[in-house]
Amino acid sequence: MTEHKLHHELERDLGWVHEAWSKAEAKIGRSARTIGAAFPNGTTNGRYVRGPVHDWVAGFWPGLMWTVYRENGDEELRRVAEACEQQLAETLQTYDLLHHDVGFMFSLSSVAQHKLAEASGRGGDADAKRHALIAANLLAGRYNPQGEFIRAWPNWDEEDHTGWAIIDCLMNLPLLHWAGQEIKDPRYKHIAIRHADSVLRDFIRSDGSVCHIISYDPETGAPIESLAGQGYAADSAWARGASWALYGFALSYRYTGEARYREAALRVARFFVARLPGDAVPYWDFFLPEASQESMPRDSSAAAIAASGLLELAELLKADGGAGNEEDANWCESSAEQIVKSLSERYAEWGDEHEGLLRHATGYYSRGVYVDESLIYGDYFFVEALVKLRGRRELFW
């Protein structure tokens, strides 16, 4: 999709945002009362599969509750979110089941709970803050100083992950930045910056495409190879990986002010948007064989993540000022609006016969996991993007 098309096809009347928000808010309120304090992952036959509390996606349901609660004050949403946070806190005692994604898990639960308590004038939530700080320490403990990367999964199976780092982890870095600011300890920031710089050097290609996994020598820190991970191939471009990179670098720029992260986010954003099909929602990988592409599933979750990341980047560029930044900000905002509008009109499921909010997401294509289904993180980022389009700027990240 060209920049020209995005700028000139998009109508600036955002009445559709308020209509979509109203429908999403209503559905989430109903879902909170049926799903309760559980941890939905992806849908099967229209119902969300409830997963274990230590799963990497466990923070998105309470994050969704807090996002909507902040807008409408529905006490049932707060009750569900707090009950989820208590369960998540218990995972801190099971270190062997945790991983690099404690940022996803605790930024949208414990950090969100603490921030909202602060905003209400109650001085924060001491227990939730403590849980998030413990999680930040666990994340910092995964840092390999020789290779300057945060290690991904533990060795849960026969495959050795000791030297693996993945693109998704950029979105976990805000937990480190937040922790460092909270307790005035710069070590967390230093770890986050070193990891982000390694990702910028080793994961982001010159055309703005992104690989999913880099395997490093855990002793020397030298990169060994790029791995396909959830992408089509080692040299392909997994769509959700690009969206994690786009949003993750924007958040690194927000916390550090380092221009290299802003430029990285823009480079990935231009790659992502330029390769979108006509309805602005990507196929699950950008480098699929052309002959088979149209038969492949889309990934609405990648679109939602990218849209929210584009809106974050737009705000940061506006704050920077200058004609060039203003032009880039307008492009980011217009691109995000086009994506979210398409999701609202073509991919959203507003009724209760299907528990998910966004249809046609792809979890792990090569393993057949949640293909052409709803994914809880797709739902979360779709709602986060809608809230941003309504004018909300404060984040839980």
Q: What keywords describe this structure?
A:
single chain, 397 residues, 53% helix, 13 helices, 9 strands, two-stranded antiparallel ribbon, Glycosyltransferase, 9% strand, mainly alpha
Characterise this structure:
The chain is mostly helical. It has a single domain, classed as Alpha/alpha barrel (Glycosyltransferase), CATH 1.50.10. 53% of the residues lie in helices and 9% in strands. The chain contains 13 helices and nine strands. The strands form four sheets. Strands 5-6-7 form a three-stranded antiparallel sheet, with no helix packed on it. The two termini are 29 Å apart. 56% of the residues are buried. The model is unreliable at 2-11 (pLDDT under 50).
How is the secondary structure organized here?
Layout: H1 3-9, H2 15-35, E1 40-44, E2 47-50, H3 60-72, H4 75-90, H5 102-119, H6 126-140, E3 143-144, E4 149-150, E5 164-166, H7 173-183, H8 187-202, E6 213-216, E7 223-227, H9 239-256, H10 259-274, H11 300-320, H12 323-347, E8 361-364, E9 369-373, H13 376-389
Helix pairs in contact: 2-13, 3-4, 3-5, 3-13, 4-5, 5-6, 5-7, 7-8, 9-10, 9-11, 10-11, 11-12, 11-13, 12-13
What oligomeric state is this? single chain
CATH architecture: Alpha/alpha barrel
Q: Choose one word for the global shape.
A: globular
Supply Rg: 19 Å
Kindly report the CATH topology. Glycosyltransferase
Number of domains: 1
Helix content: 40-55%
User: Percent of residues in beta strands?
Assistant: 5-15%
CATH class: Mainly Alpha
Sheet with most strands: 3 strands, antiparallel
Mean pLDDT: 96
Number of DSSP helices? 13
